[in-house]
Amino acid sequence: MFRSEYADVPAVEVPIHEAVLGRAAERGDTPALIDGVDGTTLTYAQVDRFHRRLAAASAAAGVRKGDVLALHSPNTVAFALAFYAATRAGASVTTVHPLSTAEEFAKQLRDCGARWIVTVSPLLKTASAAAELAGGIQEVFVCDSAPGHRSLIDMLGSTAPEPVVDIDPVEDVAALPYSSGTTGIPKGVMLTHRSIATNLAQLSPSVPMGPGDRILAVLPFFHIYGLTALMNAPLRQGATVVVLPRFDLDTFLAAIEKHRITGLYVAPPIVLALAKHPAVAQYDLSSLRYIICSAAPLDAGLAAACSQRLGLPPVGQAYGMTELSPGTHVVPVNAENPPPGTVGKLIAGTQMRILSLDDPDKELGVGEPGQIAIRGPQVMKGYLGQPDATAAMIDADGWLHTGDVGYVDADGWLFVVDRVKELIKYKGFQVAPAELEALLLTHPGIADAAVIGVYNDDNNEVPHAYVVRQPAAAGLSESEVMMHVAERVAPYKRVRGVTFIDAVPRAASGKILRRELRDLRERS
Question: What is the CATH number of domain 424-523?
Answer without folding.
Answer: 3.30.300.30
